[in-house]
Amino acid sequence: MNGPLVVIGDTLLDVDIEGSAERLAPDAPVPVVDVEARHPRPGGAGLAALLAARDGAEVVLVTALADDESGRTLRGLLNGRLRVVPVPLRGSTVCKTRVRAAGQTLVRLDTGDGHVVGGPAGELARTVRSALRTAGAVLVSDYGRGMAGSLLDLLGDVDAPIVWDPHPKGPSPLAGCALITPSESEARLLCPPPYAGPDEAARRLVKALHARAVAVTLGADGAVLAHEGGHHTRIPPPLLDGGHDVCGAGDRFAAAAALALRDRLPVEDAVALGVGEAARFVEAGGAAAIRPSRAQMGDRPRTAIEIADLVRANGGRLIATGGCFDLLHAGHVSLLRRARALGDALIVCLNSDASARRLKGPNRPVVGQQDRAEVLGALGCVDAVMIFDEDTPAEAIERLRPHVWVKGGDYSGRELPEAESLRKLGAETVVLASVPGRSTTGIIAAMHAA
């Protein structure tokens, strides 16, 4: 099993104040916003860590938190979702407050002066070293507040792939990073002048920063990926309807790419996955659309139908997928994690024992349906499991009414048996690439050969 994703960086408190603006103030030509709701969420490294945890990954966040009201709010938003290793913060929590009406940001107010001075020592340093030693991958999410620089000495001993999301006010990324992910505006500042466009910038930054790869992100145009040795390629975004609020898209990209490298996917696949996840994140409303977890909504629903109803009632996006999931392996987990990232809840439609036998043969499944359901339900990325006895999940789909139906890459280009039910519901079908070399059939064959 791969180790956790360790996220290191500066955590901010982001707040969206939502309201309506239907008149101007009498003393100045500015809109009057009638406040209807206030939505706090982690920003910076905290958002990147939260998004990775929502993907179902085990996440350790090493960050600085102040003992003030905003800092306590951040602790409450993060606790229970991931493991936090807190480092002392000098000054007050940085808080970025957006005032929004009708989905548009009218003004942003920034407060707080918190920054990190010096690296962790004593027991805290030992805790950080222990987390880094077991990491499957490390994401440095630098927001220029000193967290990345304070851990440079400890990061030098990391064996896992490091993804570095840089900031102009932060330190230069460590030599040998598996992937560095500047935006184009950051690449302009990092790249030795003169600036000759993102393709040339990516190639030059690979050499200047001694990185294995650099991906310059281009927003709606995807990314440019340059490899050690000079080769570069354009990674286009998926064809989606688009979105307007790009807040958090860079964090979504970096977190998804880091998890893909943790899962040992090639860097080009990791960047393509990051571009796709960032595009879907923006299409779904960006950081402003992040909703409370089911635990924060109150009593935890017990059935798949209850969860489906609750997600729709809260305006969320319901994701569903199906399969036998016999002898659960890393390929299954990767698929489920990426599926969960597409929305607000993931329901797995699980073939019963009888259904699996008709589909796979008399010797399958190896693991019974109740055990398979129990294991799937224990994954953080799975919100509920629905067992179905039919040959296809069409009836289960019609009962759940998901917004998105996910299939593995082995179905690419083929008509799905459940396609007609999906068309009736107007549900989107997303095919996610399978992890190479991972299959139940392969595990069974290896067991017989042993």
Give a summary of the structure in a few sentences.
Helices cover 34% and strands 25% of the residues. With 450 residues, the protein is α/β, with parallel strands linked by helices.
What features would you describe in this structure?
This protein is α/β, with parallel strands linked by helices. 34% of the residues lie in helices and 25% in strands. The chain has 16 helices and 18 strands. The chain has helices spanning 45-54, 69-78, 122-133, 147-150, 152-155, 184-190, 198-208, 249-262, 267-283, 304-313, 330-340, 353-360, 369-378, 394-400, 419-425, 440-449; strands at residues 5-9, 11-24, 31-44, 59-65, 83-88, 95-101, 104-111, 137-141, 162-165, 179-180, 213-217, 223-227, 232-235, 318-323, 345-351, 384-388, 404-408, 428-432. The strands form 4 sheets. The protein has a 6-stranded parallel β-sheet with strand order 5-4-1-8-9-10, sandwiched between helices. A 5-stranded parallel β-sheet has the order 16-15-14-17-18, sandwiched between helices. A 4-stranded mixed β-sheet has the order 3-2-6-7. The chain is globular, with a radius of gyration of 23 Å. Mean pLDDT is 87; it is low at 294-301.
SSE arrangement:
Blueprint: E1 5-9, E2 11-24, E3 31-44, H1 45-54, E4 59-65, H2 69-78, E5 83-88, E6 95-101, E7 104-111, H3 122-133, E8 137-141, H4 147-150, H5 152-155, E9 162-165, E10 179-180, H6 184-190, H7 198-208, E11 213-217, E12 223-227, E13 232-235, H8 249-262, H9 267-283, H10 304-313, E14 318-323, H11 330-340, E15 345-351, H12 353-360, H13 369-378, E16 384-388, H14 394-400, E17 404-408, H15 419-425, E18 428-432, H16 440-449
Parallel strand pairs: 1-4, 1-8, 2-6, 4-5, 8-9, 9-10, 14-15, 14-17, 15-16, 17-18
Antiparallel strand pairs: 2-3, 6-7, 11-12, 12-13
Helix pairs in contact: 1-8, 6-7, 8-9, 14-15
